[in-house]
Amino acid sequence: MCIRDRIKMSANRTDNLLRAGVLSLAFVAALSTGLLAQGTGRPKVLVLAPRSDLEFEVVQSFRWDLAEELDKSGKFDIVTQDQFRDYRRELRIGRKDFVPDSLVPIIIETFKATIYTKGTLSQPDGKGTALSAKMDFIFPRPAQHEDYVLEGEKFTVSSEENTKELAKQVAQTLIRASEKISAMSIARSYFSSAIYDKAIQNFQKILEYDPNDIDAHYMIATSYLKMDSTDIAISRYEQILAQIDPDHIQTREILANTYYAKENYDRALEHYKILAEKNPDNYGYTQYRAFTLVKMGRNDEALDVFNRLVQIKDEDERIRMQMGSMEYAKMVALEQAGDSATAKIHAGKATVNFARAVELCQKSENPDKKMMCDCLNYQALSQLKANDSRGAIETFSRLVEMDPAYPNAYFYMGATAYKDKDYANALKYFYEAVKYVPDNTKSSIYKNIGQIHQKRNEYQRAADAFTKAIPGADAANKTLLYFLRGLSYHDWGNQLDYAANENVEMDELIEAGKMTKTRAEQALELYSKAESDFTRVT
């Protein structure tokens, strides 16, 4: 595979510490291990050109002199001048083009390097005068947010004619630390290969050189965590915060998430709270602080934190749905406690959050239809609690456009219209409702339909609706339904019976030609049905 192809492949890999969820320690293999070059067992160094205003030839002379000194030490392997020249050709980078920092991780992975250089070369008084260099040696640490930097000293020689001497002095900084660097490289290699006991042994060697090396302490703890020795790992992480650096973010992150996974929410919250307060604009810390409070049942505090969260970033419909659900639950509790005024305030807040959840869901690449329907349903119910009947009907209308069979949507629309005395629409919605509900819930809807028709003096339709309601009703409701149907039969009979409103007998009206015999018989039959239903009731 050519270098350019390897670059393209590596550009598609990620090395990010994931924060929106349980944080993970995912490493890009070549970067994290510092693969030992060519099987020699020595760390490999990529010497990059220092930043400088000097002539190109002077800079390159110093650069490759430094590479040669490191190679001659026998403690390191290097990326050679020929290898780097071929790399530039593959990438079509000009000989004098400066390599940008953003390309450095890809170059390291390409050459399987462990260390790279970064620094400056200067000659303030011009050609033929003192030449100075300060070079740092950087060991990438994917487990951390910062690389391990072996800071170099500033060295000076008499002129640009002495770049070899200058390179020799600069190289001593890394050569003196070679044993520690080798231990780091070997430890990382074992860690990447999941040989955690060997990784711990080699990280322990680093502590022999520097007992307070926080990276070594962190990687030892993480190795124990990978080995499922969670209690030992936690103890090690806590030791880092207590004895080395209380502000070590990575340690506090992993402790917070480990405690959360173990359902030790008190300790998890302790760490999330510190992380969120020290980094108030960090979405992940604030999010998990809120989630932990929810797990602990401290919903009022969680809502406050969620409100801060959406000020940082408001792009997650699940967060808004969570907030809406919590406000809705608070509304219900206040209603039950008899505090309707405050309940209404929280109904308004629930409405806002559910509406925002729907809006965000619509913007996503693959909108979750069920989630949108659920949010619309609770948005409408919240609007009802806030006495916004018109808004509730509009929201329910959006819901049934998406899912006509959504449970109780049409029923609530009918009930809302009925309450507002909009009987025409109430009937329309109730007739839709019975199409989608189970048979055992149709009875109450037909009862509502019958009562509306009764109010509208549509007695035949009322009686039909009550008849459909009776089979699915329980004993108590059946008695009521027989009574209501009896009223409908009676009033329907009165509609047909002209004699009901006149002080005369039916026979007189028939003889006078004011009423047909058929009509009279229909009225008498309805009176008989009414009597039968009333008898059932009494």
Structure, explained:
There is one protein chain. By secondary structure, this protein is mainly alpha-helical. It has helices at about 5-10, 30-35, 55-70, 80-90, 105-110, 165-175, 180-190, 195-210, 215-225, 230-245, 250-260, 265-280, 285-295, 300-310, 315-335, 340-365, 370-385, 390-400, 410-420, 425-435, 440-455, 460-470, 475-495, 505-510, 515-535, and strands at about 45, 75-80, 115-120, 130-140, 150, 155. Strands 1, 2, 3, 4, 5 and 6 form a six-stranded mixed beta sheet that branches. The longest helix has 24 residues, at about 340-365. Mean pLDDT is about 90; it is low at about 1-40.
Beta-strand percentage?
A: 5-15%
Summing up helix and strand content along with how strands pair, one would put the structural category as mainly alpha
* Weakly predicted, low-confidence segments: 1-38
- Overall mean confidence score, pLDDT: 88
Radius of gyration: 40 Å
Question: In total, how many beta strands?
Answer: 6
**Main sheet characteristics:** 6 strands, mixed
Gross morphology is elongated
In whole angstroms, how far apart are the ends?
94 Å
- How many helices? 25
Helical coverage, percent range:
55-70%
Task: Lay out the secondary structure.
Blueprint lengths: L2 H9 L17 H5 L10 E3 L9 H17 L4 E2 L2 H11 L12 H8 L3 E8 L8 E9 L8 E3 L3 E4 L5 H14 L1 H15 L3 H14 L4 H13 L3 H15 L4 H13 L3 H14 L4 H13 L3 H14 L4 H20 L3 H24 L5 H17 L3 H14 L6 H11 L3 H14 L5 H14 L3 H11 L5 H22 L9 H6 L5 H21 L1
Parallel strand pairs: 1-2, 1-3
Antiparallel strand pairs: 3-4, 4-5, 4-6
